Amino acid sequence: CGAERRASAISVVSTGQRAIAAAGALLSGVVIARYGAGWSLAVGAVALSLAAVAYARIAEPRSRGDGHRASVVSDTLEGLREVRRVPIVATLLLITVIAEIFGFAYTALLPAVAGRVLEVGPSGLGGLSAAAGVGSVAGMLTLAVRADRTRLGWLLLSVLLVFGLSLAALG
Question: Which end of the chain has fewer CB atoms < 10 Å from its terminal CB, N or C?
Answer without folding.
Answer: N
